[in-house]
């Protein structure tokens, strides 16, 4: 009897039963997911792309480190191999945070990380099969490994497809040096005044080529361009506010030798950029058209906009990373768009890129300062101005602020379109026809000196 008791006392502590390792696997991976989400949506919500991706990797590194540490300490199936993904993801995350790669560097990394991720996922699958005897291997780890491979395949496809798009799509315009960077501009038609089309946030020059630019070109010179980092244009060194955008446009028009004065046409946030340009270079502006333009008072005069802005600001920070995985390219394949071919396909391709989504995030972050700068324009004198408002789906307070913009000129008109929504002014043929007519009416007023009709 004594020998039996002595044996019980001297025996080593019984390891946690085999089934417990499954809880460790599930808990560790869930912890990694939660920490990543807390970092990218909460603590660092709205941050630049390298911060979002870097902190997400650090969150997952923690998950893998927990798996290694807890399984070694609390189970009879130590998963020491998990130290490898923990270390690799930690190094990659810290590297992104320390070196802060720009858009070009991130695009270059797009050729490398998918292959590395596939290799890592395959190696981890082999290690899990050898070292883990638990249902969690099939229910937790294998699906996770498949997800990593799918992400890598999507990332490879996106990187390759972006290169293919740029190779097979002809650049109808040309690139102009604006001081160490190049901006893209495409002018068609002939005659004066020159119409300059300023795109909305998360758009490029492409969508103007569907309905509006070809129609305006039949009457006068019309130019569409890509802001820094959009479409064909080189990315900026750092996020740009509205003043920097307007300065870029002024330099572009000067270096490209596009004669003024100009009729500026701004859609959505493009209207705010156009107003900043007009405030800084008033002698170069002969007239303006605001196509459902973002009002200066959006954050104070639109009851729903501040909360919407806060949500979208955080969400938009995730878009570049999602775009690099090919998510937007997949989604946009099923999105309806009434733009004519081939503009429709070009539009879908360009709005799917990580570069454009990166600039969208930056412009959205800078939006409060952009709207403040746009308020510097207090008068256009008697230069013709037409405000076109898409009333369908407009949020509370939108129409009064649209009407207020007509006070910028003593020669203005406000045209409210009850059956057209915000994107429809460019994408839908009926809305684009109304937008085109407003542009041509301002051009005619500039040429003749006659006042605009109010209808």
Would you give an account of this structure?
This protein is of the alpha/beta class. Helices cover 56% and strands 10% of the residues. Strand 3 (194-198), helix 8 and strand 4 (222-226) form a beta-alpha-beta unit. Helix 2 runs parallel beside helix 7 (135-168) and helix 10 crosses helix 17 (367-374). The protein is elongated.
The biggest sheet, with number of strands, parallel, antiparallel or mixed sense and barrel status, is: 8 strands, mixed
Shape summary: elongated
CA radius of gyration: 28 Å
Which structural class should the secondary elements be placed in? alpha/beta
| Through-space gap between termini | 107 Å
The portion of residues forming beta strands comes to: 5-15%
* Proportion in helices: 55-70%
Report the uncertain regions: 1-18
**Widest sheet, order of strands:** 1-2-4-3-5-6-7-8
Mean pLDDT: 94
Record field, number of beta strands? 8
Question: Could you state the order of secondary-structure elements as H and E?
Answer: HHHHHHHEEEHEHEHEHHHHHHHEHEHH
Write a concise keyword list for the protein shown above.
455 residues, 8 strands
Itemize the secondary structure elements and their pairings:
Layout: H1 2-10, H2 20-43, H3 49-74, H4 83-99, H5 103-109, H6 113-131, H7 135-168, E1 174-177, E2 182-188, E3 194-198, H8 212-217, E4 222-226, H9 242-255, E5 262-267, H10 269-280, E6 285-291, H11 298-301, H12 305-316, H13 319-324, H14 327-332, H15 343-351, H16 354-365, H17 367-374, E7 385-390, H18 398-404, E8 412-417, H19 424-427, H20 429-448
Parallel strand pairs: 3-4, 3-5, 5-6, 6-7, 7-8
Antiparallel strand pairs: 1-2, 2-4
Helix pairs in contact: 2-3, 2-7, 3-4, 6-7, 9-10, 10-17, 12-16
């Amino acid at each position: 009897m004594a020998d039996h008791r002595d044996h019980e006392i001297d025996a080593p502590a019984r390891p946690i039963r085999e089934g417990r390792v499954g809880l460790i696997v599930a808990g560790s991976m869930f912890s990694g997911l939660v920490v990543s989400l807390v970092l990218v949506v909460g603590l660092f919500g709205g941050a630049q792309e390298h911060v979002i991706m870097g902190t997400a990797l650090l969150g997952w590194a923690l998950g893998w480190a927990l798996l290694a540490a807890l399984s070694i300490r609390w189970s009879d199936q130590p998963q020491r191999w998990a130290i490898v993904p923990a270390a690799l993801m930690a190094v990659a995350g810290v590297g992104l945070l320390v070196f802060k790669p720009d858009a070009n560097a991130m695009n270059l990394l797009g050729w490398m990380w998918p292959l590395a991720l596939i290799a890592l996922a395959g190696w981890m699958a082999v290690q899990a099969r050898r070292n883990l005897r638990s249902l969690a291997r099939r229910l937790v780890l294998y699906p996770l490994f498949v997800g990593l491979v799918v992400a890598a395949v999507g990332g490879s496809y996106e990187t390759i497809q972006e290169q293919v798009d740029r190779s097979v799509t002809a650049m109808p315009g040309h690139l102009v040096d604006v001081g160490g960077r190049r901006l893209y501009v495409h002018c068609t038609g002939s005659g004066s005044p020159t119409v300059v089309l300023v795109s909305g946030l998360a758009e490029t020059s492409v969508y103007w080529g569907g309905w509006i630019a070809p129609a305006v070109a039949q009457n006068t010179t019309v130019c569409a361009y890509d802001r820094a980092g959009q479409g064909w244009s080189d990315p900026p060194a750092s996020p740009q506010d509205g003043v920097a955008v307007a300065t870029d446009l002024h330099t572009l028009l000067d270096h490209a030798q596009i004669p003024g004065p100009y009729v500026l046409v701004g859609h959505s946030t493009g209207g705010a950029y156009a107003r900043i340009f007009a405030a800084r270079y008033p002698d170069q502006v002969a007239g303006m058209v605001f196509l459902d333009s973002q009002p200066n008072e959006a954050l104070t005069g639109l009851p729903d906009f501040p909360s919407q802005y806060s949500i979208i600001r955080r969400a938009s920070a995730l878009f570049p990373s999602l775009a690099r995985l090919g998510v937007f390219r997949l989604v946009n394949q099923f999105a309806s768009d009434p733009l004519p071919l081939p503009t429709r396909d070009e539009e879908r391709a360009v709005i799917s890129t990580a570069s454009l989504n990166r600039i969208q995030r930056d412009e959205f972050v800078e939006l409060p300062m952009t709207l403040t700068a746009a308020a510097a324009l207090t008068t256009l004198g008697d230069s013709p101005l037409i405000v076109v408002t898409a009333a369908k789906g407009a949020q509370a307070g939108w129409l009064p602020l649209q009407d207020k913009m007509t006070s910028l000129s003593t020669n203005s008109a406000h045209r409210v379109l009850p059956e057209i929504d915000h994107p429809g002014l460019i994408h839908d043929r009926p809305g684009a026809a109304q937008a085109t007519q407003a542009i041509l009416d301002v051009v005619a007023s500039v040429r003749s000196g006659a006042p605009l009709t109010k209808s």
